Amino acid sequence: MSDRPLDGIRVIEVGQLLAGPFAGTMLAYFGADVIKVEPPGEGDPIRGWRLLDDTGTAYWWRSLARNKKSVTANLRTEAGRGVVRRLMADADVVIENFKPGTMEKWGLGPEDLREENPDLIFARISGYGQTGPNSAKPGYASVTEAYSGFRYVNGFPGDAPVRPNLSIGDTVAGIHAVLGILLSLVERGKGRKTRGQVVDVALYESMFNLMEGMVPEYSGAGAVREPSGSTITGIVPTNTYLCADGKHVVIGANGDSIYRRLMHAMKQPEMAEDPRYADNPGRVEHEAVIDAAIAEWTGALTSQDVIATLEAADVPVGPIYSVADMMEDPHYQARGLFEKVATDTGELDIPAILPKLTATPGRTDSPGGAVGTHTDEILRAAGFSAAELEALRTSGDI
């Protein structure tokens, strides 16, 4: 097995549901020893969410819990919290996504651990961050995506804002947490006086980080970016077009030379060379005319013919894929975007975790196991005796 960049880094993950666990998944994929702390009994709720296999385990769980070691500890009891504290004392990183103040209430906040583990990197994921007037509010992805400005620009003018059928806020926050953890590990490795530190990630701020030029455009020009359906404001042409076979394609021809190639491929040389459409500002002014011409052309051809014609002209074009399309596509397969794991009910495909590294790539070693699979192994290594483990188990603390 090849080395991975995070080999030797120990992570204690005490979050549940999605944002914190996704951060842990990314770290585990690239070699970190991730110990996932779950409540005794049912464990993380995502174990039972959405589609379930014949054992009652979510298919999603096999992806989200990959490479992790499951340890049970009851954070609502003093003894259970003591177990977690001992694990944190030897950790490099803690990931938690509870409501701000919860870890402090349990005596497990970063200041509670600083003296015994000054090198600890403490990643905290919450809806609105650890400070500010909204910090105490519950913040699920759905609400924080709206608060971030992301939902406002999604959908068609005059209609209700649209939600993509994914928990984007959670996943993007998890990626930001990984970024903060890696930056902190780099800083710690420089040997300066900065040792451990807190990584404060808010779901709404992670989505806010995706808002491109909205703030300077508003500050400088008073412009509020509005929803624009399947287009993007101020860039033409880039849109979704219906074809004769009932399928849609996306065409992005907003570069000046690309636009001309598109029009020549459409047998519209006059539009290709019209000085009114020679640059993006002119095309924005005449967006309706340009989009109507493209839609008329695609509407007379199958999606395959549109794609073949534009690919031959070196114009960016592509189909809109479902997951079934992805898994049948030779490019997805060639890039290794699906990994097979063995579960109790058979073989299962799960997605690879990106990005790709040439020298020290990540990999999936195992799918998520049963609740508490590694409790004895991890706690014995942490110094708990067999008698202590039996007492903790009898009392329900693990």
Please explain how this structure is put together.
The chain is of the alpha/beta class and about 400 residues long. It folds into two domains: about 10-210 and about 335-395, Crotonobetainyl-coa:carnitine coa-transferase, domain 1 (Rossmann fold, 3-Layer(aba) Sandwich), CATH 3.40.50; about 240-320, formyl-coa transferase, domain 3 (2-Layer Sandwich), CATH 3.30.1540. The protein has helices at about 20-30, 60-65, 80-90, 100-105, 110-115, 140-145, 170-190, 205-210, 215-220, 255-265, 270-275, 280-285, 285-300, 305-310, 325-330, 330-335, 375-380, 385-395; strands at about 10-15, 35-40, 70, 95, 120-125, 200, 240, 250, 315-320, 340-345, 345-350. The strands form three sheets. A six-stranded parallel beta sheet has the order 3-2-1-4-5-6, sandwiched between helices. Helix 1 crosses helix 7 (about 170-190). The longest helix is centred in the middle third of the chain and has 22 residues, at about 170-190. The protein is elongated.
Question: Main traits of this protein?
Answer:
alpha/beta; formyl-coa transferase, domain 3; 398 residues; single chain; 2 domains; six-stranded parallel β-sheet; three-stranded antiparallel β-sheet; elongated
What's this, in brief?
It is built from 18 helices and eleven strands.
Record the SSE blueprint.
Layout: E1 10-13, H1 19-29, E2 33-38, H2 59-64, E3 69-72, H3 78-89, E4 93-96, H4 102-105, H5 110-113, E5 121-126, H6 141-147, H7 168-189, E6 198-202, H8 203-208, H9 214-221, E7 238-242, E8 248-252, H10 256-265, H11 269-273, H12 280-285, H13 287-299, H14 303-312, E9 317-319, H15 323-328, H16 330-334, E10 338-343, E11 346-351, H17 375-381, H18 386-394
Helix pairs in contact: 1-7
